[in-house]
Amino acid sequence: MSLLEIILIALGLAMDAFAVSIILGLSVKKPGIKEFLLPGIIFGFFQALMPLIGYFAGTHLASKFQTLDHWIAFILLGIIGGKMIKDSFSKKEEKVKANPFQLTKILVLAIATSIDALAVGVTFAFLKINILKSVIIIGLITFILSIAGVKIGNLFGAKYKSKAEFIGGAILVLLGIKILVNHSFF
To answer: What are the b/e assignments for 115-131, b being 16+ CB within 10 Å?
Structure first.
């Protein structure tokens, strides 16, 4: 898997955290260092941790499913990306309660937004990619986009949330299709 593909996967995975960060940015009049860094650090950490966990779990399963690995990657990325695309059309607005920047609230949001990265980690195991480089890229991109999300949310409001989620989902679906095509026909 190329560096560009890993970056695209990282961007796709980070879109949930980016969307949540936009909503967090809406909740404060003037974000300070804590409001920028806390979501970035926590979201980035969990987005990097989950694929690592998925990778090691998938490594133990990879030999059993080697002939199906491209189908598993296609299905997992398709489901994750499809759900993100579906959610981008949802009219349901997430409500931010008082003080959404409490550590416990950020941790819950980080786990919720990084579950899909666990499945991507399993996919990485089947594809035998460099997991250390991948999780560093995923964590850094999520960190940067989370900080940017807080700023954008604070400046522009929630109008970008659904677009970010749609783009992230589309990237994951397209990468799943590419993996299937490459392993099936080339």
So the answer is: ebbbbbbbbbbbbebeb
